[in-house]
Amino acid sequence: MANDTATTGKKKRRIALGCEGSANKLGIGVIAHDVETGAATVLSNVRHTFVSPPGTGFLPKDTARHHRAFFVRVAKQALSDAGVRIADIDCICYTRGPGMGGPLTSVAVAARTLALLWGKELVGVNHCVGHIEMGRAITGAENPVVLYVSGGNTQVIAYAEQRYRIFGEALDIAVGNCLDRFARAFEISNDPAPGYNIEQLAKQGRVLVELPYAVKGMDCSFSGILTRAEELAAQVKRGQKGPEGELLTPADLCFSLQETVFAMLVEITERAMAHVGASQVLIVGGVGSNIRLQDMMGAMAAERGGSVYATDERFCIDNGIMIAHAGLLAYETGFRTPLEESTCTQRFRTDEVFVKWRK
Amino acid sequence: MATEFPLPRVLTYPASAPPSLIAQGAEGRLYKTTHLHADRPCALKYRPPKPYRHPILDARLTKARIAAEAKVLDRCYREGVPVPVVYALDAAAGWLMIEWIEGIPVRQGINEWLGERPEDDAPPAEDLDETPIVDLMKRIGQAVGSLHRTGVIHGDLTTSNMMLRPRPQGSEPEADAKKKAVAGDVILIDFGLATQSSSDEDRAVDLYVLERAFASTHPRAERLFSHVLEAYKHSFKKAHSVLIKLEDVRMRGRKRSMLG
Ligand SMILES: Nc1ncnc2c1ncn2[C@@H]1O[C@H](COP(=O)(O)OP(=O)(O)O)[C@@H](O)[C@H]1O
Ligand SMILES: [Mg+2]
């Protein structure tokens, strides 16, 4: 790629490298922002996922070890894909939180190392804000209500006065966590993701089994559903009949679980949209790559005269590019994370971030 | 606006006055129509099918929610809580017909009172007599107190879900426009998310929802909210412990944070 300052002597674009590792994905990406227009160009987006055996979840210790082992490889790949020189990079962005402590720390240390090695400034990024900004950039949704659904988060968010405000959220476990744990009950593969495999199985489901439905205003909860679904899974494995005497299959349970939890998510999103008077909705986070969820959300938004915006797994599932993008937005407003403050934190609310780059 | 949506079947029968669509919320639509007599207005709450959800799940939820709302309203009415009385329902068809409440939502009354006051939360000019608005806050606290005493949790307390019904003509001395805006009886509406419970926790969460909604809807009147809680405190025996619990709930609300 051409030298950015060669022709005019003035920078045409700013470039950031972003490092993400708050859960089981290690992602490193390089993004460029046009200095004039602010337009974002993805230069590279490399990811390596720690996949645990069926029936198990990913533990912090093993995940952190995975991130450390792969960081250099993934970083080199991201740089060579992007075709940029180290000198072209303006800042190193990393996930400050929220997420799992061990994996976060591993990646923060690696990001700090790069910053020192290359003499670059650091920008700590809120993971959730990364998802939102990337979703907006890719889809062009201007001011949507955002449904953020992942393994660790379930939030309904709307922007107001320089903050992403949380209107509703899961009061116990996150929706992705509910799906992942259910997958373990049937030893459904974690490759590429348990949620993806549930989605495929659900397509063969025919019977809708009654599961608890727990919505409270704009909040919801999933642990009761998980408990019931696990009970039913144990019955199915024993070849027992369902509550109405029918023979249930794992596919039926996957189908019923999806129909129920997605209906809840669409309902709380609709309530937030009615509350703030929005007609656009953006889905971000790993669960957002589920086509059934996107379709349901689309049907709801269409009724309200609006539409749904979603991205595919490259941008929905945790990645480094979203951290680079949100970090660069902050960097452009003058935000820096000094080395001695470049910590990370397991808890970091979306609404704690001052969104200086939006009006 | 009313023609945009297909009417529920119950509203397609001949009537002396055509139904009119009053509000379109996330949950459903509210029509003004009449019940039995042409001069008895009523509100018809209709939950249309949601095309995004599985039809079996949709039917189950709609039916359960209409039935629950009717049950709670009926219980409140019998216990003297200020709510609209239930006239008729068809849970499977997704509608509930209730008494029409004259007047304006409390939200509108408060905003009319606040009028052009400056943006900040500064105390008003010394010559302004705040008695009428403070009285309204107390009536809100009493209404919520009587609801909780009955063992009902509203689930969605906001100043939009309370109406201000004017008292019968002549019962009140002539008031100026501002005073009039905040006069009348507070009637609680919209029990679509209501549940039955008498626990301090559930009651405190109900108050917390109202407190947050009040602060975001009426930032300029936030300091008046203490009068709501004060009146609530004296409205039933266990109110005191609910208010202690409210402290906890507030702390949790501020601290609640999620893992990535
Ligand atoms: N019984 C009633 N009498 C008169 N107006 C009503 C009545 N119920 C509701 N409304 C009006 O309709 C609006 C919406 O009704 P509500 O029951 O709160 O439904 P939702 O908020 O779920 O759409 C209220 O804010 C109020 O202005
Ligand atoms: Mg309402």
Describe this structure as you would to a colleague.
The complex is a heterodimer of chains A (359) and B (260). Chain A has ten helices and twelve strands. With 359 residues, chain A is an alpha/beta fold. Chain A has two domains: 13-132 and 316-352, Nucleotidyltransferase, domain 5 (2-Layer Sandwich); 144-313, ATPase, nucleotide binding domain (Nucleotidyltransferase, domain 5), CATH 3.30.420. In chain A, the strands form three sheets. A five-stranded mixed sheet of chain A has the order 3-2-1-4-5, sandwiched between helices. Chain A has a five-stranded mixed sheet with strand order 8-7-6-11-12, sandwiched between helices. Chain A has a two-stranded antiparallel ribbon with strand order 9-10. In chain A, strand 4 (91-97), helix 2 (101-118) and strand 5 (121-126) form a beta-alpha-beta unit. By secondary structure, chain B is of the alpha+beta class. Chain B folds into two domains: 3-99, 2-Layer Sandwich (Phosphorylase Kinase, domain 1), CATH 3.30.200; 104-259, Transferase(Phosphotransferase) domain 1 (Transferase(Phosphotransferase), domain 1). Chain B contains seven helices and ten strands. Chain B has helices at 55-78, 106-114, 131-149, 177-181, 200-217, 225-233, 239-255; strands at residues 20-24, 29-34, 41-46, 86-90, 95-99, 104-105, 152-153, 162-165, 185-188, 195-196. In chain B, strands 1-2-3-5-4 form a five-stranded antiparallel sheet, with helices on one face. In chain B, strands 6-8-9 form a three-stranded antiparallel sheet. Chain B has a two-stranded antiparallel ribbon with strand order 7-10. The longest helix of chain B has 24 residues, at 55-78. The N and C termini of chain B lie far apart (43 Å). Residues 25, 160-161, 190 of chain B line the site of magnesium ion.
